[in-house]
Amino acid sequence: MSTATMPRGDFVDFKEVKSRITITQILERYDLIRTLKRSGDRLSGPCPIHRGTNPTQFRVSVSKNCWNCFGNCGRGGNIIDFVSLREGLPFREAALLLQEWFMPDKAGSTLAESSVVHSRRSHAPSPPLPEGASGQQDASEDDEAGENPPLSFELKTLKADHPYLGERGLTGATVQSYGLGLCGRGCLRGYIAIPVKNRDGKLVAYIGRWPGTPPEDKPKYKLPKGFKKRLELFNIDRAVQVPDEQPLLVVEGVFDCLRLVQLGYPRTVALLGSSLSARQEILIRDAVGEGGQVCLMLDADEAGRHGASDAASRLSRSCSVRALDIGEYRHQPEQLEKVEIEALLRTR
């Protein structure tokens, strides 16, 4: 690798770099725009970080000035993150390089640009997983690899009037809107079937919840074979359609999420567990954008508090995050009253 480096004393205002330079400018400089397909505010195509080939794995939000890879590298972030990974540079040096390229009034050094950049790119290391994607989580890499393929069918004979749904505080309108109901056949026979959709609104699974206390030979929850729940955020397809006046609320379970939606918080998503996966971290960052607001409302138990602490630490690198302790009021978010949620959201 070339020994040319940037002066360590150069000042860099990261906030200014991110506000003055757009992701499209970066992509154009790398001649990547031609490889991406535009749909409204979004660009998508193969991932230029890990040299992927899937035409939908790399996604860019032009208005939020951020990007994410839903493929093998699982990375995402802002323009500095992109250049850092693309060039194999530390974060600060990537920001200085951006100043050289696009902010000559701020640049304090001169690069032998063509040779240095080419050398860095050709010797750049393979991008690592996001911080916290290992060690803190209880799933193997296989649980977070690939994609959950869309289903080729829908369950159309579910019984939406099962009393258990009312016992969990759901209205008929919510049950109908989300397509829940008792399944009468197949592997989910006897279970409440809950449709799960991906970020793009495509149905990828039905997960089952036994209505009430299950018999000894039945698990409380039942997942279809091959479904990787850590790749999805329940309700993310709807939450991203809601204006961001409210923070994105993150809870553990489906019923927590649906209750909060009913109470007037449609920007709520569920982890389907107590820990944040690397893929879910990407989905949240993409949903709120750089500096967006996230409120973690996990269960008031040891697993929930540990999961909230880990998630807050990881998300705080790019989002404004608050971990709300609901234990003063209830054990689970689905038990909260609206006035209690309002009080929690006012706390600092």
Short overview:
The protein has 348 residues and is an alpha+beta fold. 30% of the residues lie in helices and 14% in strands. Residues 113-150 are annotated as: Disordered.
What's the layout of helices and strands?
Elements: H1 14-20, H2 23-29, E1 37-39, E2 42-45, E3 58-61, E4 66-69, E5 76-77, H3 79-87, H4 91-102, H5 113-123, H6 163-167, H7 172-178, E6 181-182, E7 192-197, E8 203-209, E9 221-222, H8 236-239, E10 248-251, H9 254-262, E11 268-270, H10 278-288, E12 293-296, H11 302-315, E13 320-323, H12 338-346
Parallel strand pairs: 10-11, 10-12, 12-13
Antiparallel strand pairs: 1-2, 2-3, 3-4, 4-5, 6-7, 7-8, 8-9
Name the structural class.
Answer: alpha+beta
Spans of 5+ residues with little confidence (pLDDT < 50)?
1-9, 109-141
Let me know the number of strands: 13
CATH class of the largest domain: Alpha Beta
Order of helices and strands: HHEEEEEHHHHHEEEEHEHEHEHEH
What is the average per-residue confidence, as pLDDT, rounded to a whole number?
85
Q: Kindly report the CATH topology of the largest domain.
A: Dna Topoisomerase Vi A Subunit, Chain: A, domain 2
What overall geometry do the principal axes of the alpha carbons give? globular
The number of helical runs is 12
Quaternary assembly: single chain
Q: Gyration radius, to the nearest Å?
A: 22 Å
CATH architecture of the largest domain: 3-Layer(aba) Sandwich
Amount of helix: 25-40%
- What is the count of distinct domains? 3
Distance, first to last CA = 47 Å
Q: Approximately how much beta-strand content do the residues carry?
A: 5-15%
Largest sheet: 5 strands, antiparallel
| Strand line-up in the sheet with most strands | 1-2-3-4-5
